[in-house]
Amino acid sequence: MKVLIIEDNPLNMELATDVLTASGYEVLQADNAEAGIALAQSESPALILLDLSLPGMDGLTAVTVLKREPGTTLIPVVALTAHAMKGDEEKALAAGCDAYLTKPIQALELPETVRKIIESGVPK
Asked: Which domains does the chain have, with CATH numbers?
């Protein structure tokens, strides 16, 4: 199953990729929103992990684009971000993210969270 990670920090990208690959996921990578949107459109991943602080187009704008496009509108998008201030989760969900996870990445929890979202929809 394909998971797309859109993340500009190489260490965060490596950790998330390693954790998900070890759990049997095929991981697609993009280090900016534009490349991530293009990959999502061409590869139709089962889920997108999206950093909100990206160079150029930010994650909130990217999720708006993904949810507006017919080919990507149904792909679950999970904000994966260091933004953990009051109101940040609400902003991400209002922009179109289906779930919100904070960094640092929890290596033991990430694959299970991804599996739950893909299999049964977004946890409420």
From this structure: 2-120 (3.40.50.2300)
The closest alpha carbon to 49, from 30, 68, 74, belongs to: 30
Total Cβ atoms within 10 A of residue 75: 19
| Residue (of 43, 54, 114, 105) closest to 78 by Cα position | 114
**What is the per-residue pLDDT across 50-84, written as a single tens digit (0 to 9) for each?**
999 999 999 999 999 999 999 999 999 999 988 67
Nearest one of 98, 99, 29 to 67, comparing CA atoms: 98
Task: Tell whether pTM > 0.90.
Answer: yes
